[in-house]
Amino acid sequence: MVSGGVIRSPEIAYELIRSQQADFVFVGRSLIADSEWVNKAREGQAEDIRPCIMCNNCIENSFKGVATDCTVNPWVGRERLHCPSTSNSKNTRVVIVGSGPAGMQAALSCQRLGLQATLLEKEAELGGMLNIAAIPPFKQRIALLRDYLIKRLKENRVEIILNKYCNAEELKSIPSDYLVVATGSKALLPRIDGWDDKFCWSLRDILNRKIELQNKRVVIIGGGRSGCELADFLLINRNRITIVEAREILAAGMEKKNRRDMMDRLQNGGVIKKTSSQAVQIKPGQVEIENQNGTPEILAADYIVMAAGFIPDNELYLSNQEQGKPVYLIGDAYGIGGIKQALLQGEMLAQSIARISCKE
Ligand SMILES: Cc1cc2nc3c(=O)[nH]c(=O)nc-3n(C[C@H](O)[C@H](O)[C@H](O)COP(=O)(O)OP(=O)(O)OC[C@H]3O[C@@H](n4cnc5c(N)ncnc54)[C@H](O)[C@@H]3O)c2cc1C
Ligand code: SF4
């Protein structure tokens, strides 16, 4: 008997065999995320396995007929570009601002390639947006990815400075040969008449539980992936939710299978979908929307949450152009691209810096 499917941890694989529910266990996606899965499991190093987050990007690629790559493993499909660890005798110092996946991966890759990396973060904890992305239902595996990256940073003795807000002035006092800006994104906040902080909140505030909504009528403005995940999260506390989305469908760019599962949950939770519609005015207790034909409608709402998406936060990059040293921009701060893009750019940039600094 061979068993498999969503077996992600060696403990579960072992338990299946120990309890004689299976003679063999197979792993699929987990081997894409970490080709050393089996060896690490055998050697009792389960916590060193790079976790698959079950995003299904790899499966979607094969349905599309394009080469496989992996959200959490930047070397999949680029194995020949993978540079092993090297030592750089020139003590090249790379300062990286922002500890989301882009900054953490850049720091790890720099350290592996013999560069001295320093990671600066304005918050008290590492992880950036991964800390929020892991909160909605079925997203907890993102926290495993965050913890894996943090563990690797500590094992590799990357210098980490938390609670350090960086502006151009501040960075002048920190010696570095290269500066990497990985400051992520800012929430897109379209101006809507009547916005009032007493009952209007942002996605980030709600997921961070700055306010606990229970059994309330909530209108979410923005039905992209994160707006829909927010609805999924708010359903836990029996809130009655309406999503207003300008496009024709919700979570348009999301991977198909995960999207279908989430849409089923929203449907079962009674979420009302107002697609091809825009919020035009907010008043206490209501939101006025208009559909594509200009037909108005009033939605009752105790709370309104803005989830209209994110835009790159590249101010630090722009304000550092005059410092006379190379400055690079990666991750969402370069262009909103998600975890895959952030990790890949972190790795590729470190390789470029290692190559340039060797030639100098
Ligand atoms: C609810 C939700 C769910 C998501 N789910 C997914 C998903 O399933 N898959 C996916 O691919 N993506 C997902 N994302 C998006 C993903 O989290 C981001 O694309 C990714 O984290 C971007 O990484 P980054 O390193 O570029 O920036 P961020 O993760 O945003 O990190 C930027 C860091 O820079 C720090 N910083 C900013 N300015 C300064 C400064 N001046 N000084 C010092 N530090 C600074 C910030 O505090 C932050 O820690 C989700 C996002 C949300 C909100
Ligand atoms: S692409 Fe996503 S689902 Fe596929 S192996 Fe990588 S993390 Fe797992």
Walkthrough of the structure:
The protein is α/β, with parallel strands linked by helices and 360 residues long. It folds into 3 domains: 2-64, no CATH class; 83-186 and 312-359, Rossmann fold; 189-308, 3-Layer(bba) Sandwich (FAD/NAD(P)-binding domain). It contains 13 helices and 17 strands. A 5-stranded parallel sheet has the order 5-4-3-6-17, covered by helices on one side. Strands 8-15-9-10-11 form a 5-stranded parallel sheet. Strand 12 (277-283) and strand 13 form a beta hairpin. Helix 5 packs parallel to helix 13 (338-359) and helix 10 (225-235) runs parallel beside helix 11. It is globular, with a radius of gyration of 23 Å. The termini are far apart. The model has no long low-confidence stretch (mean pLDDT 94). Flavin-adenine dinucleotide (FAD) is lined by residues 55, 71, 97-103, 120-123, 128-130, 132-133, 136, 165-166, 182-185, 226, 229, 316, 331-333, 338-340, 342. Residues 29, 32-33, 52-58, 70-72 line the site of iron/sulfur cluster (SF4).
Helix content: 25-40%
CATH superfamily of the largest domain: NAD(P)-binding Rossmann-like Domain
Total beta strands: 17
Order of the strands making up the biggest sheet: 5-4-3-6-17
CATH level-1 class of the largest domain:
Alpha Beta
Unreliable residue runs: none
What small molecules are bound in this structure?
Answer: flavin-adenine dinucleotide, iron/sulfur cluster
Global geometry:
globular
Average pLDDT metric:
94
Domain unit count: 3
The CATH architecture of the largest domain is 3-Layer(aba) Sandwich
Structural class: alpha/beta
Radius of gyration computed on alpha carbons: 23 Å
Largest sheet: 5 strands, parallel
Q: Count up the helices.
A: 13
Q: What is the beta-strand fraction? A: 15-25%
H/E element sequence: EHEHHHEHEHHEHEEEHEHEHEEEEEEHEH
CATH-defined fold name of the largest domain:
Rossmann fold
Terminal residue distance: 58 Å
